[in-house]
């Protein structure tokens, strides 16, 4: 099961990833960004631990239908974001893949010069 430390580590393992706390009303909310754009959003102290991740709309719907731990993004565009419960119901590999997919979606939308600086595998 992925805990708060493993989640933070997984998000920060990507090239150019940073953690920021931009919400003065909710100072415990961690945002993980690349190129200034959010790819993961969580409150690491929350129980149950959840993370909101960007997702292709069609995949987002399939994941929600297949897994009760995957819900439409909380306070986000529900077409493009899922909130995933990390209470142990989903395989760790699936969660890590969803984090990577979210990062990749954000990087793919960055200007080419930023993608090159990140040495993003999808660039080559």
From TrEMBL:
Signal peptide: none annotated. It comes from the Bacteria. Keywords: DNA-binding. Pfam families: YjbR. InterPro entries: YjbR (IPR007351), YjbR-like_sf (IPR038056), YjbR/MT2646/Rv2570-like (IPR058532). One of its GO terms (molecular function) is DNA binding. This is MmcQ/YjbR family DNA-binding protein. It comes from Streptomyces kasugaensis.
């Amino acid at each position: 099961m992925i805990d708060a430390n493993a989640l933070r580590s997984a998000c920060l393992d990507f090239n150019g990833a940073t953690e920021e706390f931009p919400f003065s009303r909710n100072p415990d909310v961690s945002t993980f960004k690349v190129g200034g754009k959010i790819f993961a959003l969580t409150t690491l102290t929350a129980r149950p631990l959840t993370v909101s991740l960007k997702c292709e709309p069609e995949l987002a719907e399939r994941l929600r239908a297949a897994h009760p731990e995957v819900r439409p993004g909380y306070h986000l565009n529900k077409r493009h974001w899922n909130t995933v419960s990390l209470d142990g119901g989903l395989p760790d590999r699936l969660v890590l893949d969803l984090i990577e997919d979210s990062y990749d979606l954000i990087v793919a939308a960055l200007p080419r010069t930023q993608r090159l600086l990140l040495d993003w595998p999808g660039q080559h």
